[in-house]
Amino acid sequence: MIVVLGTIIASGYYLYSRQPTFDPPTAAIDGLPGTEGVSRAAADLPTRTMDGKAIRLGELRGKVVVLDFWATWCPPCREEIPHLVRLSERYRSKGLEIVGLTIENPADREKIQGFIQRFQISYQIGFATDEMFGTYIGPGEQPIPQTLVFDRQGRLQAHLIGFNPKRDPQRLESLITRLL
User: What pLDDT, on a 0 to 100 scale, did the predictor assign at position 149?
Assistant: First the structure.
């Protein structure tokens, strides 16, 4: 029991303390890591928002889109979300669309809704399917948060892994303003 608990704590600390990266643009959606040969249509996977509405990335073409994979139990996600809320409020009218994709079970809707209210999340929240997570982030266990930024044509422009509060808010805002 102690070994299992120690392993859980150590892996959580690793994911929390892992130095985040900000990858420069490398390719269009088709070239996301782990998606070689996946067609653009396959990357346009559907999901459901908290209110049950269907959403697809392709429907958001013409806007700068930020996809953020997160969970309520994730400490760096809790640090990142207030910055995303401010960005959404500041740039929504200029064409920014932020979509938070929780990796949690849709059955935990009540817990997630409480989290949304507590953090005053004003952007769309959807549920990341396994297929969506694997396509956009990659196979296997991956750290969160992971944030992908797409330009108005739906091309991947940046991929942030983790969250560094001293660096990432400014870099993300700078990229968004350039793309808008």
Answer: 92
